[in-house]
Write a structure and sequence with these properties.
globular, mainly alpha, 94 residues, 3 helices
Length: 94
Amino acid sequence: MFDSEGTPCFTAPECHIVEKDGYEPMPTDIWSIGVCLFAYCSEGKLPFYGESELEIQIASRQKELELPESFSAELKEALKVMLNKDPSKRPTAE
């Protein structure tokens, strides 16, 4: 795919980078599910945010994922793999 739709805070970082081959849609869905899980477990906070769409895009590509201490070890591990900036390292839905 080459185009990107959706809410910027839930959009995977690779969707914002123009490459000749585009991006794979399935890993982007895993990213979005990871953001939803993070938001649900942190009472609405988001893992990557900014004042503008550009700031959100930069944060999702460059900022280190920070996980609240209140998250369980299992939740932290799940979020680390789901919100991996390398789409080839994210789990599949299978």
